[in-house]
Amino acid sequence: MPRQYKRKLGARRYANCDPATLEPALQKVAEDGWSLRRASAEYKIPFGTLRNTFREKTFIRHASLCGEWGFPLSILDVRNLAKNYLESKGRAITRFKDNMPGKDRVYGLLERHKNEISQKLATDIKKNLRETLKDFLACNVFNYDKTNLQDDPGKKKMLFRRGTKYPERVCNFTRTAITVMMCGSASGVLLPPYLRHLQG
């Protein structure tokens, strides 16, 4: 659960505006193409408040859409997205470890938008898959998987004269990688395996 923030006496105020005024301003930006500066001036809302709320609502809307598509985001996904966004903007937040917000930040975001998004256990994937494939013949549904096999001689610590700059060991073999791909249909037909051999 997010921490309960207690405002310090004399600290800067945030979101110091009427929610009834904030929503129409955000609607003008999202639907009518207004700039944040114009909406801030017209509705007399602090620019920072309007900008931060607009960013949060945009993210919440896209996160909800991912859930509708069957690819919901986890708390870690949200934190990584925030980190990638900050890095794409060239910003470094010193209070974030490795420029990644903590879990409390994400929980606070969810709490502020609890009427729009919530956490749920994702347990309906099989049901959704069954509904998606109900009109397909079993012989037309295929699944494949691949695995990689490597023959890596690796590295070992050996004895060399002290001061040797380039310690090398002569081997009569090289590194080999073989990729094996198997594919089969829902009707039980197994296709011949596909092999890919790489040697370096």
Automatic annotation (TrEMBL):
Under the heading InterPro entries, the entry gives:
Homeodomain-like_sf, HTH_Psq
Q: Which GO terms describe its molecular function?
A: DNA binding
Species per Swiss-Prot/TrEMBL record: Exocentrus adspersus
Q: What is this protein called?
A: HTH psq-type domain-containing protein
Q: What cellular component terms from Gene Ontology apply here?
A: nucleus
HTH psq-type domain location is 19-58
Superkingdom is Eukaryota
Pfam families linked to this entry: HTH_psq
Give the location in the cell: Nucleus
Q: Which Gene3D superfamilies match?
A: Homeodomain-like
